[in-house]
Backbone:
């Protein structure tokens, strides 16, 4: 749920409770005050009555036209004054209504008079209700307006946050483009943006450092190898080499090749892990496989390997160079670990690629084959990194890879 | 053909030069940026082999300098970095080809030859091989009696041999030239024997002497002094 929705909900709940509570208190308070007013007026009347009796000795005439109903009765004893509510028939409202009753006694003309004053409260009650309704309406208006303000203003206030998110989404480490974060005066977002910039800066530095390392390492490793190989290429031009010497030179050549391959593979792994192959696009796998098959075709024929190819259209979102390396390694493995007269099967569907080959009559250790430098029993010339590279590429491209051994075939299945 | 090697590893530069020096090519070296710039301005070359990881100035700067002065030399970039960015950038600035270290010297020579041939296009798209003619445009081999059909691999192999004539080339370098160095599927390179055999047969059937000599344990040598 969005932040301001949740904030709204809480505030709304609290406000509504608060207002309901205060409305109730307000009602009773207002009622009490208005009744007090009524009582005070009637109390004044008592004082005026007493003054009149003092002045004239007689009770004042009971006014029939006033709002207050007045009644005199003679009683034997004086009583303490009493205020109370009474329900009686209201001739104006033409229904039963509540009255405020005031009883008090006044001595006059040698007798004790009991004065009953009754004031209708309909008007007072109406006033109270009107006041409450107006108040509630005002509260409702305030709530609605605050909701609207929340919606409009908060949305605008959150703008910088959403802009930052959008900028981060478009940012790619290897592209090395400056990320432009929105300018804002809101403290929290300034804090967010500054920290983001710092993190990005650090990540970029690390990336650059690692990239330079792999490039320099490559240079340092491959240059001496280039030197050795170039010397060998010159050396074999000599006319006076014996057969034994030629054999030895061949071994040296092989050693150089293995070293070169090894350092290339290690550096490739480092580059993959360093996200140096971040550019992805839609790749036509069928086309790539068909091209690879053409490249390998003669080699397979020369080594008496048969090919069974079953391709349907398929595509994947990935890095083009990595996909090339992936296919190269898979097909090279299928070729190298094969037997003379053996077969390679390629089966391609929209989300699945199966490459399998005949070869060693024993299942490989599926738990360990993808580990670096793991080599099976044969093929000590391979550096054991081929499958690690395949695994890394699959992980980067969100491809699942599985090994199985069925019907005397080693099967590598990729799905995406 | 005059070739300039710009490479800061002195021994490597010298090795390349020694290998190149023959009836086909003469070779000069520059070990650093300033010497290279000097030589480029004073002399004309047919091809420049340029290492882009020079100590006191990037090789790419030399490349830019060449292009700015509208010099017509072909450029082959050699680099140990195998960096895709460098490769793309180099080719964009105007290099003709890119080769990663460590390479086979015959491979370097083959690429230099290709660049030189392309540059000298105007007059020279045919190579004479005794009575035969190699047509580089059509990628065909002709004798007085007509066309000698060669497969693509046989044609590439012949060009490779001719570029590296009279030098021993290893089977390994032949395989890498014909199939690229990413495809690593064989421990032995003996399978190329059939291709060599077929090429040899076709050449001899067209009346040529047996140019291709096997060098025990190593590879082959194309003996031809045309």
Residues:
């Amino acid at each position: 749920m969005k932040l301001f929705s949740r904030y709204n909900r809480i505030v709304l709940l609290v406000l509504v409770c608060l207002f309901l509570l205060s409305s109730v208190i307000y009602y009773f308070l207002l009622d009490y005050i208005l009744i007090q007013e009524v009582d005070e007026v009637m109390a004044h009347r008592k004082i005026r009555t007493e003054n009149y009796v003092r002045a004239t000795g007689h009770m004042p005439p009971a006014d029939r036209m006033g709002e207050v109903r007045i009644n005199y009765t003679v009683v034997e004893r004086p009583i303490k004054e009493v205020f109370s509510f009474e329900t009686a028939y209201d001739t104006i409202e033409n229904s039963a209504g509540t009255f405020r009753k005031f009883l008090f006694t006044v001595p006059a003309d040698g007798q004790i008079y009991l004065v009953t004053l009754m004031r209708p409260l309909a008007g007072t009650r109406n006033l109270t209700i009107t006041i409450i309704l107006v108040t509630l309406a005002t509260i409702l208006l305030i709530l609605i307006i605050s909701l609207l303000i929340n919606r409009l203003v908060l949305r605008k206030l959150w703008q910088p946050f959403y802009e930052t998110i959008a900028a981060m989404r478009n940012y790619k480490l290897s592209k090395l483009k400056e990320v432009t974060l929105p300018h804002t005066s809101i403290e929290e977002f300034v804090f967010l943006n500054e920290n983001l910039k710092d993190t990005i800066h650090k990540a970029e530095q690390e990336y650059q450092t690692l990239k330079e390392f792999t490039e320099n390492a490559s240079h340092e490793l491959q240059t001496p190898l280039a030197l050795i190989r170039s010397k060998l290429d010159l050396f074999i031009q000599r006319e006076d080499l014996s057969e034994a010497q030629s054999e030895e030179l061949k071994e040296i050549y092989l050693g150089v090749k293995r070293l070169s391959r090894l350092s290339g593979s290690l550096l490739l792994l480092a580059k993959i892990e360093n996200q140096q192959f971040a550019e992805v696009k839609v790749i036509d796998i069928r086309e790539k496989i068909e091209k690879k098959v053409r490249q390998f075709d003669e080699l397979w024929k020369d080594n008496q390997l048969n090919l069974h190819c079953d391709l349907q259209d398929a595509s994947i979102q990935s890095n083009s160079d990595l996909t090339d390396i992936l296919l190269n390694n898979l097909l090279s493995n299928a070729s190298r670990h094969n037997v003379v007269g053996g077969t390679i099967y390629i089966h391609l569907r929209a989300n699945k690629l199966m490459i399998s080959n005949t070869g060693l009559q024993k299942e490989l250790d599926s738990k360990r084959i993808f580990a670096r430098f793991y080599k099976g029993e044969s093929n000590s010339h391979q550096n054991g990194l081929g499958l690690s590279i395949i695994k890394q590429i699959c992980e980067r491209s969100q491809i699942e890879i599985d090994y199985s051994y069925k019907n005397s075939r080693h099967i590598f299945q990729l799905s995406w | 053909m005059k070739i300039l090697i710009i490479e800061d590893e002195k021994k490597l530069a010298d090795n390349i030069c020694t290998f190149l020096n023959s009836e086909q090519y003469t070779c000069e070296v520059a070990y650093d940026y300033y010497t290279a710039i000097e030589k480029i301005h004073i002399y004309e070359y047919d091809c420049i082999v340029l290492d882009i990881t020079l100590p006191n100035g990037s090789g790419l700067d030399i490349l830019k300098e060449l292009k700015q002065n509208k010099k017509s030399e072909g450029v082959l970039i050699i680099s140990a970095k195998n960096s895709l960015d460098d490769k793309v950038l180099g080719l964009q600035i105007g290099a003709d080809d890119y080769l990663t270290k460590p390479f086979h010297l015959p491979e370097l020579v083959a690429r230099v030859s290709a660049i030189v041939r392309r540059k000298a296009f105007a007059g020279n798209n045919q190579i004479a091989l005794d009575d035969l003619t190699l047509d580089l445009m059509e990628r065909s081999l002709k004798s007085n009696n007509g066309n000698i059909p060669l497969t693509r691999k046989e044609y590439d192999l012949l060009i490779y041999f001719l570029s590296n004539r009279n030098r021993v080339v290893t089977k390994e370098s032949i395989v890498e030239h014909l199939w690229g160095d990413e495809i690593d599927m064989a421990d032995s390179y003996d399978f190329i024997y059939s291709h060599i055999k077929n090429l040899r047969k076709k050449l001899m059937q067209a009346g040529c002497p047996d140019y291709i000599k096997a060098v025990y344990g190593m590879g082959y040598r194309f003996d031809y002094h045309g």
